[in-house]
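Entry 0007
Protein: 23S rRNA (Cytidine2498-2'-O)-methyltransferase
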Amino acid sequence: MSGLLLYCRGGFETECAREAESYAFELGIDTEAEALPGGGAVFLPLPEEAADELAALPFFRWVFARQCLRVIGHVGNLPERDRTGPIALAVPPAAYCELWLEAADTEAGKPLLPFCRKFAPYLEKALIERKVKLGSPRGPRLHVFFTDKQTAWLATSEPGNASPWPQGIPRLRFPHEAPSRSTMKLAEAIHVFLDQQDQQRYLKQGLRVVDLGAAPGGWTWQFASRGLKVTAVDNGRMDKKLMAEYDVTHVQDDGFRYRPVKPVDWMVCDMVEQPARIAQLVAKWLAEGWCRRSIFNLKLPMKKRYEEYLRCKALIQDTLRKAKVPYRLRFKQLYHDREEVTGYLERRE
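Output (structure tokens):
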């Protein structure tokens, strides 16, 4: 069995499959991805060479996949009294940096997580007895993904080109000082779109930020707590504690009408609005030189979500090409997103 195993948000298997199929089509391969039982994961069958090539695709290009793995085996009908034996026999005897046992982040998958934790040391022992080396600093990561207690998918990932978190889910703590839980979405976006060097350069104290649709201040808090100067634009009320403790200016205005007096370093936007309007707004801010970078959220419709994502992406690209503005654009459906995707747009010199 050869192909890719992709983790995704439950309910977005179709979008993940469409994305995977489009990448395969770019290689000249017409294949059909299938959602695994229980949801939250998709298998894309591919020839060996094509699977290797797509597994090497830069991970940041995947939008709806939380994790992208190269399938190396599949084991079914695992006996209850000896699951370790068949799995250990199916794993190629090679050197791996670590072993992750996982299940989908769905109602069907969550009950399997305690089983994975309990089963892990037994499987690790069986693998070592089979001359499988674990802890190699340069080896791939070995994943064992359970759809139920009788079925396991075996796959690998390259740590430098994959999600660094089990299940592709970041482990972030909610800061109780933040005014709303929406702050987690921006916190995750910062981790996903900016590496440590970028965070030090672009989130420096004193940089200026405009937050469109800011109330009550969940996204504003992420910047203000780092020492950035934030203009929070919203006709709604901002959190009183946030306004009292940080360098935040509240402007009561419509996010679509507001224009900065002078260019700012960041514009961020989490307004509940038609995604195409948000895409056009973000593109205009960058094209006009009103900001250098933006993190924004697109609320996708219930139907044709993948098509709407592609449409919004094209709107941004077309606007900036016509304006002859060099840019970098990325999208990701974050763990803290719901029926939405988050985008990062940067004006490049």
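Curator remark: The first strand starts at residue 3 and ends at 7. The CA atoms of residues 275 and 298 lie 5 Å apart.
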